[in-house]
Amino acid sequence: EQVSEYKEAFSLFDKDGDGQITTKELGTVMRSLGQNPSESELQDMINEVDADNNGTIDFPEFLTMMARKMKDTDSEEEIREAFKVFDRDNNGFISAAELRHVMTSIGEKLTDDEVD
To answer: What pTM was computed for the model?
Structure first.
């Protein structure tokens, strides 16, 4: 299922349908997402995963790029930071009281009944 989502995403990048994403196509999509990468930044992004050194990204290279991005999304540091939000007394554990505090005061606040 994930691969079919990536295939769909790849086809959004691959504007001319030739099976390759060029710096121009990558730039077009990134600009549509509100980013403004320079030509050299786009080239660097492609070079990072361009295994066959042809200057473009094919689907297997795109999968490599997505796998790296997915791996990078939940770095250990980010997880530790999130844990600290819950662990208010910094003892390395999240008590029921600490969990209750977070669930009733942050984000979509739950009532005491909902927490119980």
So the answer is: 0.54
Residues 6+ apart with CB under 8 A from 48: 65
- Domain with residue 34: its CATH number is 1.10.238.10
> Quick one: pLDDT at residue 55?
94
110 in Cβ contact with 102 (< 8 Å): no
Rounded Cα distance, 38 and 30, in Å: 11
* % residues pLDDT > 70 (the chain): 91
Look at the chain and count its residues: 116
Residue 90 confidence (pLDDT) above 80: yes
Give me the mean pLDDT over the 40-56 stretch.
92
Same domain, 37 and 94: no
Note down the domain range covering 19.
Answer: 2-73
In sequence order, what are the residues at sequence separation of 6 or more whose Cβ sits closer than 8 angstroms to the Cβ of residue 39? 23, 27
